[in-house]
Specification:
This protein is an alpha+beta fold. About 35% of the residues lie in helices and about 25% in strands. The chain has two helices and five strands. The protein has helices at about 1-25, 60-70, and strands at about 50, 55-60, 80-85, 90-95, 100-105. The longest helix has 26 residues, at about 1-25. The mean pLDDT is about 80.
Length: about 110
Amino acid sequence: MPAKKTTKAATEETKVEEVKAEETAETKPAAKKSGGRKTKAKEPKVNVIIEYLDKNTVIDDIKEAVKEAYRADGNEDAIETIDIYFQPEKNVAYYVVNGKAEDKSVNV
């Protein structure tokens, strides 16, 4: 009978060792990767061009025209938002700056 006890004890020791191995594997932090520095991907410059009736209009040009017209009207407030409504058939851009609708437009 003593042989059975040693076998049972050996089995219990093996189980205990397995449990300890699982616990240490769970509690260890993941290995950190060493290597180079992470670099942010640069946002590409995007040009949006509207073609209508054989005419090309660049969105950035419309934005700049709106900003210039806003300043030319004597507005010195900081521009936080600009909403532009472009009508290519009339070649006109209506705009709203900082949520104030003033029925302003720019010929583009």
